[in-house]
């Protein structure tokens, strides 16, 4: 599946603009991780872009989230590696994250929202004014961006990146697409 085909598919199932932008942000982060580790950027990007494809239909029952999405992606013919990564990004199912793809998607999911929250509390409301020190300081504040699970972001250590390195890669990846995110 090409990125254009994936975007069309995502638009068919995901109507919430903020959630759509979240998927774009996770895609950018996943592409950054792929470049860092010399992995398949298209594969990582598709996993990030499509990871929440089922959210509109499963938001009221998060125990189904990612199970429905992975089934949808399997039916669309996406590779088993992407299907599995999408399935295991929701740790509610207790499935093992095996590959770099699985682990990166798990960590990238909450960090995108965390970085958006950091940009939105700045007067400029722009990603360009956010830096890693600002993010690290906010990371210590449990009341900031409560929904962005710290332990999930810190799982970047499972694939060989320190939290500061991962935050920097994620921020730079999102800054590169800031106009598409409206930030």
What is this structure's SSE topology?
Layout: H1 3-13, H2 17-36, H3 41-50, H4 55-58, H5 67-75, H6 80-88, H7 100-120, H8 132-140, H9 150-153, H10 163-175, H11 178-181
Helix pairs in contact: 1-3, 2-3, 2-7, 2-10, 3-6, 5-6, 6-7, 7-10, 8-10
Overview of this structure, please?
The chain has about 180 residues and is an all-alpha fold. Helices cover about 60% and strands about 0% of the residues. The chain is built from eleven helices and no strands. The protein has helices at about 5-15, 15-35, 40-50, 55-60, 65-75, 80-90, 100-120, 130-140, 150-155, 165-175, 180. Helix 1 runs parallel beside helix 3, helix 6 packs across helix 7 and helix 8 (about 130-140) packs across helix 10. The protein is globular. The mean pLDDT is about 95.
